[in-house]
Amino acid sequence: MLNFQRLEIFVNVAAAGSFTAAAATMGLTKAVVSFNIKQLEAELGVALLHRTTRRVSLTGAGEGFYQRCLLLLQDAERMLDEVRGDHQGVNGVLRLTTTPEYGARVVVPALASFAALHPQLRIQHVSSSHHNDLIADRVDVAIRLGQLADSSHHATLIESFSILPVASPGYLARHWPDGIQTLEHLAQAKWLAHSRLSTPLSWVVNTPQQQSCLFNVESSASIMADNAAALLSFALCGAGVALLPEWLVKEEITRHNLVVLLADHQFPRQGVYALYPNTRYVPEKVRLFIDHLKKR
After folding, report:
1. Measured between alpha carbons, how far is 227 from 232 in angstroms, rounded to an integer?
2. Burial, 103: exposed, middle or buried (Cβ in 10 Å; 0-12, 13-18, 19+)?
3. Which of 16, 19, 217, 235 could form a disulfide with 201, with the two C-beta atoms 3.0–4.6 Å apart?
C-alpha cells in the first residue's frame, strides 16, 4: 500500500536536493527523512537517489518516479479539497503565481476579495517574472501575459489588453522636437526593450488604413530589462521609447508623464491567461477563483 507521507518526503528531498533542507521544510528530523527514503527504496526495490556528501540527485528511475509522485500527490490533494469542500466550503491552499506588475495591480486585489469570500481558504501568492513549473512547484494557477505558447496545461483567457509605444515629454523634447510622426521615425528612436521576449524589437502593426505591416527597430535596444516595471521607470526618466501594457501606463499618460506615440497605429493586443495543471481533478477553488478574476 502506498504511504503518501513517504511519497511527499521523497518529493521534497528531490526538489530540495538535500535531506537537511527537506527535513526543515516539512518540520521533521533528518533521521526521519532518511529512514523514510530508505524504506521507500526498499519497498520499490530500486535506488531513487544518488547521494554525495554535498548533494542528493535523482537516479534515472527516481526521475520517472518523481514526476508520477507529483501528479499523484496533486490529484490526492485536489480530491481531498473537493470532498472537504462539499461539507465545509472552499478550503485548503490556493497556490498562485503572477508577474510582479500585473499581480500587484490586478491579481492581488482579486485574491484579497476572494479570500474574504472563502475565509477557510489559505492563499500562497508568488510574484515572479519567470515561468514556474506548475507541476514541480505544485502551483494551482499561473497568470501569464502576452501571446500564449503551446502548453500541456489548461488555459483560460481572462482578458486582453493593448500595448502602447510611450516616451516621456522630456525625451521627445530633446530628441524629437517636431514629434514622432511616422513608423519610420519610431524605428529610429532610442528603444527600451524587454529581454524575455523572443523578438522585442519586431512587431506586426496595423496602420490607420487598416493595413498590416512588419515594424522593425533599426538599431539594437539602448536598454534591456527583464520586467515591465523597470522599463516603465526608464521611460519616465527619459531614457527612450518603450512598448508597454495600457493597464500599466494609463495613469502616467493621464498625468502627462508619458506620451503615446502614433496613437492611430495598433500593436498586437495581448492576452491574460490563467493556466492550471491538466489533471483529472480541477479543484473547485481553482474554478471559483478564475471565475472571480474574470468578473473583476
Report:
1. 9
2. buried
3. 217
